[in-house]
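Throughout this chapter, every protein is written as a compact record of paired, labelled lines. The reader may check this reading against the record printed directly beneath this paragraph:
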Amino acid sequence: MKALKDQRSRGPGGGLRTMNTNILMGRLYGQDTLFNSIRDLMKDLPHIFITGPPGSGKSTFLEDVMDIFKKEAPFQIESILWLSSEKDRGIHTIRDKVNDFCKRVHSKPNTLRFIIVDDADTLPLISQQALRRPMETYHHLTRFLFASRHSSHLIEPLRSRCLCLDLEPINPADAFPLYLQKFNTPFTQDLMDFCLRNFVSINEVKSIILLYKAYLTTLSEEQALEKLKCVLPTSVIYTTALVTALGKKREDDIRECITNLYLNGYLLDDILLAVEKSINIFPSTDPSVRFTVLQFTMLGWISIQQGKEHWLDTMDILEHVLRL
């Protein structure tokens, strides 16, 4: 494996340039091995399938990979088609957008076009099946990049045509000092405690540090932190109460906690991650309480995979857990 720090690599024009993969593009940390694996395959680039749990940085990883291709690849990127999770899921998208995109005539030699399918777990089975032909027929012109929570979310005929990479979540405690250094932000123990005790995603930690730095232009460190606490209410109070209420199966309290979390801007995956973190922090939790909480989180992740993340869907999960 090439050196991870001060690595020298060749750009598209063949010239040498110095890069530090520990602070890659200023976005995603800790995935140097995966980035270097992709670099080693750029001369004969396969389709790529990225998997990882929520908050691990799959979308950011795809953006970073495309930046690497733009700056280092021996080919030129002609165009990119992003298929988002909010739309572009149906069979008509595949038949119209994807096929038309693939069939376009290349304007320059030594170029590739890319189709990026984020949140591939929301792609219907019929749409996945319709992608088999374009992947086979236009492989010499087009590359597909998929991202999903689990490898099983992509059908085998597509998965077998891809380089599968598992994106492990980065510990926010590891990313925190790197972000402080990158954004030239002073360290305080209170800021670190606020970030690491209340947030589980490194992207959340990054956003908090950037906001904190902006506040420091007009406020003291203490005032900036207090303003952060007002602007970014944490889930700790509601999560702790939710775990307690789940363990005792107090239906009214559970509903109130979940409703408060939704009202504060948390979605179902945020709630599940926070609940799981709470259980991990307190391993001595009563086994019966742990069992009930794990039932809630398991059914929650299944509901997310089915595209059911609304408050009402969470209430349905609650009803099922209370009946057990």
In short: The chain has three domains: 7-166, 172-231, 236-323. The longest strand covers residues 76-83.
